[in-house]
Amino acid sequence: MKRRRPSRIRINAIVIREVQRRRLVRIARGEIEPNCEREGFFQWSLLEGHRPRYADFILPPLLFLWEQGDGGDEADVPEDAPADAALSAS
Fold first, then answer.
1. pLDDT digits (tens, 9 = 90+) for 40-90
2. Residue 41 half-sphere exposure, CB side, CA atoms within 13 Å?
3. Prediction pTM value
């Protein structure tokens, strides 16, 4: 029986996980700075002398994409906007 090719969604998930792993490796080497709080915590754990597991800091693909986007921050909503705008913006 011939093996099926992985779906596009599965391929995208594999690529996103690899991107995250490579970023963590580069952060551990000191080549790049953290881009978010999760990566900052990873760097902090390394600086404190811990040996964190990379898998603990790799997010599912959709959460990673959300984290790299605007993240739905309420800072995008003007202060004089009605309260409903904060809910509809996220």
1. 999 999 999 999 999 999 999 999 989 888 665 555 555 665 555 555 555
2. 9
3. 0.69
One-letter amino acid at 59 equals L
What are the tokens at 89? 């913006």
Token look-up 């900052």 returns 40
pLDDT score of 81: 55
The region, left, alpha or beta by phi > 0 then psi within -120 to 50, assigned to residue 49 is left
Nearest-angstrom CA–CA distance, 85 and 62? 24
Give domain limits for the chain.
8-89
Residue that has been written with the tokens 């992985």 in this structure? 6
DSSP string, 2-70: PPPPPPHHHHHHHHHHHHHHHHHHHHHHTSS--SSHHHHHHHHHHHTT----GGGGPPPHHHHHHHHTT
What is the rounded CA–CA span in Å between residue 63 and residue 36? 12
